[in-house]
Design a protein that fits this description.
CATH class: Alpha Beta
Largest sheet: 9 strands, mixed
Shape: globular
Structural class: alpha/beta
Radius of gyration: 18 Å
Order of helices and strands: EEEHEHEEEHHEHEHEHHEEEHH
Strand content: 15-25%
Number of domains: 1
Number of strands: 13
CATH topology: UDP-N-acetylmuramoyl-L-alanine:D-glutamate ligase
Strand order of the largest sheet: 5-4-1-8-9-10-11-12-13
Helix content: 25-40%
Length: 302
């Protein structure tokens, strides 16, 4: 096993963004101003972040046998990500997100998951070689839950550290918690997982206590501009956020998770890993867009 190797299992989408003065009401057509097509999906964003920040990354995902799928593989290759275990689905198109953004920054998003939701346990079995040399597995919840559970158990049994970003938030079985090395919810996801409304550090601690009681030793609750709370065993650490002027928070959480995985793969403590992740995500929010806002390691003073 090479603890420096990171496997990311998750979603890959193409984001299609139209900017318009105002969002249409049902049945209305409005004229937009500009159109952008960007790579996205939580899994892809986190894989790109981990690679740019110095990780040896293998990405396992599923795309359609279409132009979007082929383009995404080319982009991952350019990011020095191992694409040997990206599967193609001839029955479903690649995942897409249709996004409308008005002049005030309000948005309306519809995601068609497509091939992401056909990434199966049998695909993970076919990719078993990717796990033989891995130290970290990073996952999110934009693929079938059954696949997440199967992959976590397989990696746990191999002694791989499993990190879960529970986004979008969903009910998690107790058996899944027990396979996790760390879980990284934002405050909204922490509320859903714990039943505690997270509004400050004290409520984040209470939420982390409940989440940890389900079987995971390390809980990192990200609090946006307020930083992050770490619960490791019976110990708490609060890490303040970097002070920056935020322009666009897209992919900040994904950058955080990718950076955290890289730091842990290098043997840093969870506290030091969160400090690095905070610095990386702080850079992301000062730039527009998703993957194009993710920094490289040489941009971070650490």
């Amino acid at each position: 096993m090479n603890s420096r190797n990171i496997v990311v299992v998750g979603s890959s989408n193409t984001d299609m963004v139209v900017k318009t003065e105002r969002l249409p009401v049902p049945g209305e057509t409005v004229l937009g101003n500009s159109f952008m097509m960007n790579p996205g999906g939580k899994g892809a964003n986190q894989a790109v972040a981990a690679s740019r920040l110095g990780g040896n990354v293998t990405f396992i995902t599923k795309t359609g046998n279409d132009l979007f799928g082929r383009q995404s593989i080319e982009l991952f290759t350019e990011e020095n990500i191992n694409t040997n275990f990206i599967f193609s689905d001839s029955n479903h198109p690649s995942g897409v997100a249709l996004i409308m953004v008005d002049s005030l920054g309000e948005n309306c998003i519809v995601v068609a998951s497509g091939a992401n939701m056909s990434l199966s346990s049998s695909d993970i079995k076919k990719a078993s070689n990717a796990f033989e040399q891995a130290g970290i597995l990073l996952m999110q919840l934009e693929i079938p839950m059954q696949t997440v559970e199967y992959t976590a158990k397989m990696a746990f049994d191999k002694g791989i550290k499993v990190i879960l970003n529970p986004a979008p938030a969903a009910y998690l079985k107790e058996d899944l918690y027990k396979c996790l090395y760390a879980i990284v919810p934002n405050k909204t996801e922490a509320e859903i997982l714990s039943g505690i409304k997270v509004s400050d550090i004290d409520s984040a601690k209470r939420a982390a206590d409940i989440i940890a009681s389900k079987g995971v030793n390390i809980v990192v609750v990200t609090l946006g501009s307020k930083g992050a709370l770490i619960k490791e065993g019976n110990e708490y650490n609060y890490i303040e956020a970097e002070r920056v002027e935020a322009v666009d928070t897209t992919a900040a959480g994904d950058t955080f998770c990718g950076a955290l995985s890289v730091a842990l793969s290098e043997g840093l403590s969870i506290v030091e890993a969160v400090k690095l992740a905070n610095k990386a995500s702080a850079i992301t929010v000062t730039r527009e867009g998703a993957q194009n806002s993710i920094p490289y390691r040489n941009e971070i003073q650490f």
